[in-house]
Fold each of these.
Amino acid sequence: MALTAETESRLYRSLRAAAGAAAHLVALGFPTAVAMLARPGSSLFSWHPLLMTLAFSFLMTEALLMFSPETSLLRSFSRKVKVRVHWALQLLALLCAFLGLGIITYNKHLNGKAHFVTWHGLMGLLTVLYAGGQCGGGVLLLYPKLMKNWTLAKLKLYHATSGLVGYLLGCASLMLGMCSLWFTTSVTSISWYLAMLCPLITSLVIMNQVSNAYLYRKRSQH
């Protein structure tokens, strides 16, 4: 029996809501698991995995889910409030990322190790620099008059697109970190594969959210 358009729409919204709920759980659960594994304070290095997972798994994920019509934790609030919370979460994520980068750089210096010679190190550096640029670009949305030849709608579209790229870079950096000697020594077997699924799940949810926002904006223009 064929599903009606209304039933399909309701089913689709339910699936998006379930995926968003899973993303919230993963966003919080993954940094928690890493914190238990790294035991922050046990060494200088122990702060690096915690800060990076907080930045790119928890804070940045929640900042982007803020605008989801199905799974935002502030659905009943105005867009103005959501934008402010988004900004606060993104700035906290950037702060954690820069601290995490600084700590691992200093730790390598203390141990006489080379800097940024692995794919994880290079991707991490690129991701943190990109995140800094993305936050700087977000200022244009607060002061759109600075870009006189660009409409606010176009600025929002480019900011969302470039933000998605930055988020995917962060997820890729986390996944490369899980291929490091420290992580593979501590996490083995099925647990390692489950850990790798965490950034995959959140990235798929965020990509779906951004693509739906783009399609909605296209339909509203016609």
Amino acid sequence: MGGRVTRVFRNFNVENRASREISKEKPTPAPRHRTARLDAMADSPEIKEEVHRKDDRFLTLLKDVYVESRDPPARVKDGGGEHLPSKQEEKRLTKLGHLEGLDVKKVPKGKISIVEALTLLNNHKLQPQIWTAEKIAAEYSLELKEVNSLLEFFIPFAVQEFPKETKKAITSRKPKKLT
């Protein structure tokens, strides 16, 4: 219903409004910048002659210029674009046990792999008297300060399973009726 009303107002006196717009004076274009007039002058023969004429003064200056180019020293390419380290890092074999296939085999000294980090955090959580920060630092070639902050700020997840009796007790409970 609303569309019909708006259509009536939109189409009211359309022809008169259209003829009024058509009969209006057209706006005059903005004046052109004078550089646009230079493009027309570029076709003139005097300007073409000036462009193609050789200047002896510039030719003598150009002859005085001497350019000597040298190629940069050739570099020996190493295999695959890999950069060789400036000093060889000492590496150690990882202590993974049964998780050996999951992680890297060699790790630089002073660093640990993810699987090793999870293992040592779990060992410390289960047996903190045996796996102290000093023992972990000596075992994995780490600094004591880093091991202390690792043990303080990172805690492995603990999986908790609820006994089956509690599940039955929860599901067997009937909801209260509101009266």
Amino acid sequence: YAFFICSVTNKKPAQASITKVKQFEGSSSFVRRTQWMLEQLRQVNGIDPNRDSPEFDLLFENAFDQWVASTASEKCTFFQVLHHTCQRYLTEKKPEFINCQSKIMGGNSILHSAADSVTSAVQKASQALNERGERLGRAEEKTEELKNSAQQFAETAHKV
């Protein structure tokens, strides 16, 4: 199986690349086959914007690659990530996206949905942590009360 990975370095300035990796049958590891810098990408061709098709082509400065994604949905997700990465990291010559469904280029994209899901999850986790903190605070107060009560009982018992 072969996959494309869109990655960005954490160096300054950031460098984005597209890497083709291959996973051989029976193996859990991946082998890097080819890598292009994002600046080399000239065109992303979705082949047919009117149907959900897994086929697509990528045209680079010195290379042309034909691909078939596992599903049309995976192709759409890859295109959204690729489009977002190009918009964010390429300041000059951005690749042309042709024959792509309009949902890839903006609007209610999977990236926005993912961001909303992450934000929602973070808010829920934060609320759960706050509630847990309050319960722990009450438990600490109760423990302190019990400790004081036990000390008073021990002092009284010792006097008797």
